[in-house]
Amino acid sequence: MGAAKDLVRLLILVEVVVAIAGPGAAALSMDYYAMTCPFAEYIVRNVVSEAVMGDPTLAAGLLRLHFHDCFVQGCDASVLLDSTAGNTAEKDAPANKSLRGFEVIDKIKQMLEAQCPGVVSCADVLAFAARDAVLFAGGPYYGVPTGRRDGSRSVFSDTFTALPAPFLNASSLISLFATHGFNVQDMVALSGGHTLGVAHCAAFKTRLTTETATLDSGLGSSLAAACKSGGDSATATFDRTSTAFDGVYFKELQQRRGLLSSDQTLFESPETKQLVNMFAMNPGYFFFAFQQGMLKMGQIDLKEGDHGEVRKSCRVVNSGRW
Ligand code: HEM
């Protein structure tokens, strides 16, 4: 009887752990590098800290790299592979042209290879670096389970449907994120990643003429002026505090100061408006929901066991070709 009770307790515990960690978590663990590269997290944190102190805008770049990695064929560092003579890689797709922070990842990887060669995957480096970037920008800290493996496929056309376009409305965003197991709250909280960084006019200029009813007129005029003088490559920040991870992004959506259509739609749509209001009022709750979302995001379609490798250089597969 006692043994049966213990078994039931054990099963409940396993279920709770799986429920917290989410699907795909079986391959990951919190102490994955404890024996093989115990200082891996510190090495990543030191390099990210130095990089972000030198250029605070890099936090945005590092966060976005992890997102664009995970949404295209899972978190397998495919976004880091360089194009080759016969293949245009993900990083050269239009949606990835403005990705930043590759040099920071290279530096981390070089240091890890010097310390413990062939052990820490580039996909794990991306997950750590994104977490630390958020932390140094003032955002929440969360433990990153590790053990991801690096993939060998990186094809630019894979990004076309996998990455959300800036003109998507709330319903389309909900559907796209749902394909990876995210609920509406996850999607809105993760969109809060736009508390950091900038977008180019090419991504928001249509909103300036087609969405005047949901665009603060002062912001509309200044964005239009910026785009007129700088063209598609001019940039604007997502919110007024673009290097600080905070709740200002959501407050600005309430003021109709969202930069992309896909930002403002979150306040305009009844499906997501309450979440925007809640995150704007309670940044602590936004931080909590963002952590949950990032944990899920870091576990999308993981390569397990023989599927995948630990790359020596994040820019090329180990065989040198694929
Ligand atoms: C919800 C759907 C999303 C859409 C449609 C979207 C779209 C975009 C676009 C168009 C840009 C600007 C690109 C440019 O013009 O250079 C951008 C930047 C950015 N995105 Fe997203 N994004 C989404 C979700 C996310 C998520 C989930 C995260 C992270 C959790 C994220 C993090 C960022 C960051 C940090 C930047 C600024 C990058 C920089 O300053 O270099 N985005 N996003």
3D structure, described in words:
- It is an enzyme of class 1 (oxidoreductase).
- GO terms for molecular function: heme binding; lactoperoxidase activity; metal ion binding.
- The structure is a single chain.
- The protein is mainly alpha-helical and 322 residues long.
- It has two domains: 24-163, Orthogonal Bundle (Peroxidase, domain 1), CATH 1.10.520.10; 170-296, Peroxidase, domain 2 (Orthogonal Bundle), CATH 1.10.420.10.
- The protein is 50% helix and 2% strand.
- It contains 14 helices and two strands; from the N terminus they run H-H-H-H-H-H-H-H-E-H-H-E-H-H-H-H.
- Strands 1-2 form a two-stranded antiparallel ribbon.
- It is globular, with a radius of gyration of 20 Å.
- The chain starts with a helix and ends in a 25-residue tail after the last helix.
- Mean pLDDT is 93; it is low at 7-26.
- Residues 60-61, 63-64, 67, 98, 100, 164-166, 168, 173, 190-191, 193-194, 196-200, 203, 260, 262 line the site of protoporphyrin IX containing FE (HEM).
Based on the model shown, name its key terms:
mainly alpha, Peroxidase, domain 1, Peroxidase, domain 2, 2 domains, binds protoporphyrin IX containing FE
Attached small molecules: protoporphyrin IX containing FE
CATH class bucket of the largest domain: Mainly Alpha
Overall form: globular
Strand content: under 5%
Q: Output the structural class.
A: mainly alpha
Number of distinct helices: 14
CA(first)-CA(last) distance: 56 Å
Helical percentage: 40-55%
The string of secondary-structure elements, in order, is HHHHHHHHEHHEHHHH
- Any idea what the CATH architecture of the largest domain is? Orthogonal Bundle
CATH fold-level label of the largest domain: Peroxidase, domain 1
Mean pLDDT figure: 93
Low-confidence stretches: 7-26
Report the sheet with the most strands, covering strand number, pairing sense and barrel closure. 2 strands, antiparallel
- Gyration radius, in Å: 20 Å
Tell me how many strands there are. Answer: 2
Domain count: 2
Please list the strands of the largest sheet in the order they lie side by side: 1-2
